[in-house]
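Following up on my earlier thread - several people asked me to post the actual chain instead of describing it. Fair enough. Here it is, all 193 residues.
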Amino acid sequence: MTKRFKWTTVFLFCFCLISIFPWVVPSIAQEDPPDYLIGPNDILNIHVWREPELTRDVTVTPDGRITYPLIGNIMAQGKTVTELKEIITGKLKNFVTAPEVTVIVNESRSMTIYVIGQVNAPGPYPLAPDMTVLQALSTAGGFAEWADTKNIMIVRRQDGKDIQLRFNHKKFISGKNLKQNILLKPNDTIVVP
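Reply from S.P.:
Thanks for posting it. Predicted structure:
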């Protein structure tokens, strides 16, 4: 193969990559985040247009339900705002002509994690999107003076059982075992001995 042929091949390959790049990147980058799922203790605002007596804030009960005038108990847990809106709209049609319903999550209280033990500010914290163990530890003010940073445990309820996941902060910050900095899920508890 001649040198000129090699350079031509490399040039054409790079040109092809560059020409498809603008179409590939936006489709990867613009992936929609998953819809928020309503959970226990969330505070919802339900607004029915031109029906002020039906507009109110409701708190999702620990069993995942809300109680609403005229229609009674509704299962809200695990539903998106749009799904709940459709359910309420459908049930209100028996009492209101063409109800226009809006559901807003005023306060997300179901997306909580807990950090306990040897941290500077233990307690419950709101679970931010894509929050990792390291970010949660930072939110809790970092480690207290005598924290055992090699034996941190994440307790997660899965399929009705508690599982324990380990996090070794010393290994992580030294660049070893980076996979242990997992994404947290609602109600995870981080224990720093």
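The two ends are 65 Å apart (CA to CA). That should answer part of your original question.
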